[in-house]
Amino acid sequence: MNYGLYIHIPFCVKKCIYCDFLSFNSCDIHEKDKYKYFHALEEDWYTKLNIFNPGDHIDSIYIGGGTPSLVDPFYIDTLLRVIKSDIYVTKNAEITIEVNPGTVDIDKLEKYVSSGINRISIGVQSTQDRLLRSLGRIHNASDCEETFKMAKEAGFRNISCDLILGIPQIKNEPGQTFEELCEDVENVLKWGARHISVYSIIIEEGTPLCELFERNKAFEIDDDLERKMYRAVSSLAKEYYLSQYEISNYARSDTKSAHNMKYWKCLPYIGLGLGAASYYPADKKKPQGDYIRSSNTRIITDYNEFYFKGESEIISVEEQMNEYMMLGFRKISGPDGRVFKKRFGCYYHDKFKDKLEMLASKGLITFNENARLTKKGLDFANEVFREFV
Amino acid sequence: MSYIDNIRNFCIIAHIDHGKSTLADRILEKTGVLTQREMENQVLDNMDLEKERGITIKAQSVRLNYKAKNGNEYVFNLIDTPGHVDFNYEVSRTLAACEGAVLVVDAAQGVEAQTLANVYLAIDNNLDVIPVINKIDLPAAQPDVVKKEIEDIIGLPAEDAPLISAKAGIGIEDVLEAIVEQIPSPKGSTESPLKGLIFDSYYDAYKGVIIYVRIYDGKVKKGDTIRLMASNKEYVVTETGWFKPGALQQADVLQAGEVGYIAAAIKNISDATVGDTVTLANNPTKDVLPGYKKVQPMVFCGVYPVDGADYEDLRDALGKLQLNDASLVFEPETSKALGFGFRCGFLGLLHLEIIQERLSREYNLELITTTPSVIYNIYKTNGELVTLDNPTNMPNPTEIDYIEEPIVKASIMTPTEYVGNIMELTTERRGVFINMDYIEDTRVLMTYEIPLNEVIYDFFDALKSRTRGYASLDYEILGYKKSNLVKLDIYMNGDIVDALSLIVHNDKAYTRGRKMAEKLKDTIPRHQFEIPIQACIGGKIIARETVKAYRKDVLAKCYGGDISRKKKLLEKQKEGKKKMRQFGSVEVPQEAFLSVLKLDE
Predict the structure, then answer these.
(1) Do residues B563 and A293 touch, judged by C-beta distance below 8 A?
(2) Do the beta carbons of residue B582 and residue B338 sit within 8 Å?
(3) Which of A197, A263, A265, A279 should be substituted to probe chain B, the one whose Cβ sees the most B Cβ atoms within 10 Å?
(4) Nearest CB to A293; choose among B556, B559, B564
(5) Is the pTM for the entire model greater than 0.80?
(6) Are the beta carbons of B450 and B407 closer than 8 angstroms?
(7) A312-316 mean pLDDT
């Protein structure tokens, strides 16, 4: 069985106002504790080794955050070496690191290359200085372009950029305009991005941005404008031969994120680091049986002391089928019927006949070989997902 | 001395929170019925709801023995009365069972509107009232001011009123001695034909209805055939006895002057109604006790299960509550909007709330209740009179000659600084000013005539919020008055929502319609399409709001670590949707029905 591996680095220079990810302002964490954290990551890896069967491989690694590019590349290199010494990482495994403009230089990027990292994901978010400022980002637009150029120079071919769509009015700074969004997309494509992730902003509870909304200091942009932007991304991407392959992701056929595709295909993965989730067979001798989805503790002091255990749940075969649908529908091609049959022994067209027909009658999904979201379904995908929870 | 000379039948009357139940507990403790350790606080209020709200819903009764300072042994029958205007009739019957009343007044709060109402009821029933000033240990206590208030407002001598703290156990003996000294013993003869008053009842699964009686004349024992004179039904007595706290104690005979219970295998609580006279079938009394009334529900609303599958459970629960509450009426009703449910009648708003709460707490039912309505008299052009308690059934306006609505006399007691606010509120509620009495320099009693239908829409909440909780309210029904009323309908996405229809005064229809539409706009979630909400009278639209359509409902991100969390989020949304009511293609949450009841900001 092939596994994906996720490594979480929970440090940032400064947390952005919309972010609810597990990360800490770097200045709050002592260098010694960062060292400790990497030590704990290794220990975490050792405790999870027994999940694997002999002959299992890792075919994708994703170093995400937080801001992985903030820490000394040496830590990352060491960790990757440890992993490779314990398990076979396939030759053409996709190994991604997330970097944020303003935290990398050419030296760091070259070190990533020599560590075997072959894909880079840049947190651009916007190419408008005013919006970067209002989101609380630490960089400006030219830092983004600079980072991109350096990555190319260091030898990266497979570069992805993250953008945010629908940036709200924050205090007195007006929200994102249609033209700005188009410019953002075109900019990163012009720089040479082979993959883009464009996320509609989510106002997550407990974030400073959410609080601004509650105090009527932030206002969402018009719904219709937001959807117009969303649709524009798809057509702009097409001009650069990138096509939409997931609700928020666009790539060429050979530059889709292999690691992220594992999530949407319900394939197994191991997560290392604070709060990281793993998904694997409950009994390694029964890969067709129940799965476990467990996550590490979210408390960093515990994690650094090697108390890794967080929440954990059993995912029955029945639930796996539902998740397969829910996550599969995120892909533009929809959940794969043949793979479903191979894994669960039946066609989802039969298994979920009534639900699928109901959703089709509402115009949310359509069939050719696979079921998949319609144009309307892309806007109201939660209605489809809710049928499978 | 005959046994009857040593009996004292009394009740305690007080405003909510003035310490009635605490005093009752102390009396129980002092007379040795219960030790402090045995006592769960406030023994007489059995229901959780009673304890929580500090009100008494069902009357309770207890027989105590007290050895007085004069050396004699006395039998006390303490009858706890319900403490709210909704239960005025029950209160009056309970008072009729007593010779005296202990009036508890809070030393800090003074006399309140509701205290007044109950004291007057007591005085009307010829009771001797002993004022008692409670909570004298509070820093804010002003016993002398309160004494003067009692004398000035109620007209009772209060010079020697016991000063007590029921909570701290101060002065309880003074109260007991005052009961012996000041409350007369009952009069009556064991030789006369049996004459007893039913002042409460409850249903026991084994013994049938247990009736609470005060015997005026004669005696009754096991094996006698009794006749209930109002329902004109006869039963053979299976058991008689007295009340112990929380239990019954069998006694061979109940005789003149005593308070106790009778069990006679009575199946239906509506056959043994409060106020009825009990006598013996073979030797009936000639005079029926005065004051009997058949209680009529005043306020009606539809009660529907949130989940249609709970319909049967709701019916069972209502049936069980009715076993102990003859004033609750219900019959099946169907609403286009809400499906199958029941039209329920209540004595008043508190009664309605209590039943609602008990349904949800004791029977675990999630309910939607429709806008409460009063009973309207509709005089049709063809001379027919229709009594209407459900706005949905309002006849076509062309068939209506005129409509009458019930009017209440509302007594509001308030500190003077809120008089302006109250005038404003009562004017908004179509109140007609009758009278204003200065009770003292800083407090007034304002009397209004107000249509009941104005009182049942959050009037009490509005009154409290505009007087920072200081005003108290009491009301009684005066009668019916002709009024310019119209039916206000709510249309959602073009369909009428029958559960939201209500009858309202023409002058106020526009404001109410507009407010309802606004509230609904805020509580109805956005759909994939625009939802017009219209308030209409007849065919005429008087207010319109629109729930904007949403353009997207999609999780932008879902990766490994998110999956569990996102699933939970979707599950929660799914649960939320289940609780919504489908109106055509519009899903309406339960809160929408509640929100339109609270329009006063």
Answers:
(1) yes
(2) no
(3) A263
(4) B564
(5) no
(6) yes
(7) 95
Under 8 Å between Cβ of A105 and A93: no
Average pLDDT over residues A192-209: 94
Is B557 an 8 Å CB contact of chain A?
A: yes
In this complex, how many residue pairs, one in chain A and one in chain B, have their CB atoms less than 8 Å apart?
88
* Tens digits of residue pLDDT in B199-232: 988 888 899 999 999 999 999 999 999 999 988 8
Identity at B601, one-letter amino acid code: E
Whole-number pLDDT of residue B93: 87
Q: Are B557 and B471 in contact (CB under 8 A)?
A: no
Domains of chain A, earliest start first: 2-261 (3.20.20.70)
Per-residue pLDDT at B596: 75
pLDDT tens column, B417-464: 999 999 999 998 999 999 999 877 778 899 999 999 888 877 887 887
Q: In chain A, what residues touch B556 (CB-CB under 8 Å)?
A: 199-202, 247-248
Optimal mutation site among A294, A386, A387, interface B, most CBs of chain B within 10 A: A386
Q: Which residues of A touch B563 (CB under 8 A)?
A: 263, 277, 279, 293, 323, 327
Closest-CA residue of chain A to B559: A263
| 3-state SS, residue A88 | strand
Residue B174 falls in which region: left (phi positive, over 0), alpha (psi -120 to 50) or beta: alpha
Of B552, B554, B560, the CB nearest to A263: B560
> For the complex shown, is ipTM > 0.90?
yes
Give chain A's count of helices (H) and strands (E): 16, 18
Q: Which of A223, A269, A313 sits opposite B552 (nearest CB)?
A: A223
Q: Are A212 and A17 in contact (CB under 8 A)?
A: yes
**Secondary structure of B410-430 as H, E, C letters:** EEEEEEHHHHHHHHHHHHHCC
Judge: B554–A263 Cβ closer than 8 Å, yes or no: no
Mutate to test the interface with A, among B558, B566, B572 (most CBs of A within 10 A): B558
CA of B468 vs chain A CAs: smallest distance (Å): 27
- Non-local CB neighbours of B93 within 8 Å, separated by 6+ positions: B197, B198, B199, B200, B274, B275, B291
Record: contact B557-A260, CB cut-off 8 A: no
Q: How far is CA A110 from the centre of its chain?
A: 23
Which residue in chain B is spatially nearest to A275 when comparing CA positions? B561
CB B557 within 8 A of CB A248: yes
pLDDT digits (tens, 9 = 90+) for B6-56: 999 999 888 777 778 788 888 888 887 665 545 555 445 555 655 555 455
C-alpha A258/C-alpha A160 separation (Å) is 12
